[in-house]
Specification:
It holds the Pfam family MR_MLE_C. One of its GO terms (molecular function) is lyase activity. It comes from Natronorubrum daqingense. There is one protein chain. By secondary structure, the protein is of the alpha/beta class. The chain has two domains: 100 residues, Enolase-like, domain 1, CATH 3.30.390; 273 residues, Enolase-like C-terminal domain (TIM Barrel), CATH 3.20.20.120. The protein is built from 15 helices and twelve strands. The strands form two sheets. Strands 4, 5, 6, 7, 8, 9, 10, 11 and 12 form a nine-stranded mixed sheet that branches. The longest helix is centred in the N-terminal third of the chain and has 21 residues. Bound molecules: magnesium ion. Magnesium ion binds next to loops. Magnesium ion (MG) binds next to loops.
Length: 410
């Protein structure tokens, strides 16, 4: 009724006013959605979203079995014919379409996240604007990355090898830290839940004295090498009890760590808050948390100092920005988790450019020499530990599809 009144008023005041605005014949439509898996240090799941507007949106879903099927069998039929500019409406449409089948957490949310990234890229390309502009504009010109470091042959081989290897010795950790800092990274992170060479029950969530001494020596080697030049963080992958984490944190007090990541699992915010109050280090969690709801209890209890949602897992670009803004109301800092290809990394750059309380985005592919080759550019994406926020439309990069094909897994 109001709109009828408004239209009558408009035609009275402006006789040329057309009260039935014509639906543009150029409204873009989604024509197809699919995935390509690249065999990186994780199976990087690239999402392609075709439109009839002459652009293809590129996204990335967190490496997860079943994501291809969810995207092609469930989401693609829902999205076909929809307007790719309606990014947030389509996010909710996808969630509704998978309601009861994982749209709150897990594989369904991961698939939705991957498509959401591709929608932002497509929308930016259609509107000829960078994603950060569509998100409200940038507040920094470049985005800082921190280096996840693995000393030795790489995480998977080391994890499968039950024998102690050089990978977990202090000297190897120091060398890896030196290399990352020399490349310009100002924050380096190391796994501490690594074999010490002793037989231990890894399910017991316990550290005895020799185990703590092994971890302490690794941290000491890294901070001796780069502590004056960079911040050092450690990751424990949810493996320990509150008591064991407290003991380890006490032993690591002299080393002024940037943060201790996932010392205990994130689901029990009470336990995380208890640990946070009892140790001097800043705690970080979030790579296994989904959406704002996944962070609400942790933030309400001031249980961590840093939240680390994984953008292609937690819900995508807009949801991560909202998590960051929610975190800011608790004066908590956003440090997104990222194990992805340049596509997921650029999603992190646009989030990092637009969220005030953003510190740094993870970079996890120092062991993949062709990571940069995936991008159709002569310049390396990461320079001096930073990525310049791009002004090109969409996410701001184009993939080199020949290189993608060369490393294609499925
Ligand atoms: Mg982690």
């Amino acid at each position: 009724m109001y709109s009828d009144f408004a239209a009558r008023l408009a035609t009275t005041m402006w006789p040329d006013f057309d009260q039935t605005p014509e639906r543009s014949t150029e409204t873009p439509e989604i024509t197809d959605v699919s995935t390509v898996v690249v065999d990186g240090n994780f199976p990087w799941t690239i999402v392609t979203l075709e439109t009839d507007a002459g652009v293809t949106g590129i996204g990335e879903a967190y490496p997860s079995p079943g994501v291809h099927e969810v995207i092609t069998d469930y989401l693609q039929p829902v999205l076909r014919g929809e307007n790719p500019l309606d990014v947030e409406r389509l996010y909710h449409l996808m969630r509704e379409s998978l309601s009861g089948r994982g749209s709150q957490q897990g594989m369904g949310t991961i698939a939705i996240s991957g498509v959401e990234l591709a929608l932002w890229d497509a929308a930016g390309k259609i509107l000829e604007q960078p994603v950060y502009q569509l998100l409200g504009g940038k507040m920094r010109e470049e985005v800082r990355l921190y280096a996840d470091c693995h000393a030795g042959e790489g995480m998977v081989e080391a994890a499968l090898d039950e024998q102690p290897t050089e990978a977990y010795e202090a000297a190897a950790y120091a060398n890896a830290a030196r290399s990352a800092v020399d490349d310009g990274f100002e924050i380096v992170k190391f796994d501490l839940d690594v074999p010490s060479g002793r037989e231990i029950d890894t399910l017991a969530r316990h550290f005895d004295g020799p185990e703590i001494e092994h971890k302490r020596a690794l941290v000491e080697a890294v901070t001796d090498e780069v502590g004056d030049e960079a911040e050092v963080a450690v990751d424990l992958h949810w493996n320990f009890s509150v008591e064991a984490a407290e003991k380890l944190c006490r032993a690591l007090e002299p080393y002024d760590l940037a943060w201790v990541e996932d010392p205990i699992p994130p689901e029990n915010a009470d336990a995380m808050a208890e640990l946070n109050r009892s140790v001097s280090q800043a705690l970080l969690t979030g790579e296994n948390c989904y959406g704002r709801h996944g962070f609400r209890d942790l933030l309400e209890q001031q249980a961590v100092s840093f939240v680390a949602p994984d953008i292609p897992k937690t819900g995508g670009i807009a949801e991560t920005k909202k998590i960051g803004e929610l975190a800011d109301t608790y004066y908590t800092t956003l440090t997104p988790h990222n194990v992805g290809s340049p596509v997921a990394t650029m999603a992190g750059v646009h989030v990092g450019a637009t969220v005030p309380n953003f510190l740094a985005l993870e970079y996890h592919a120092r062991d993949v020499p062709w990571w940069d080759d995936l991008v159709d550019s002569d310049e390396p994406l990461i320079q001096n530990g930073r990525i310049t926020v791009p002004d090109e439309p969409g996410l701001g990069i184009e993939l080199d599809w020949d290189v993608v094909e060369e490393h294609r897994k499925t």
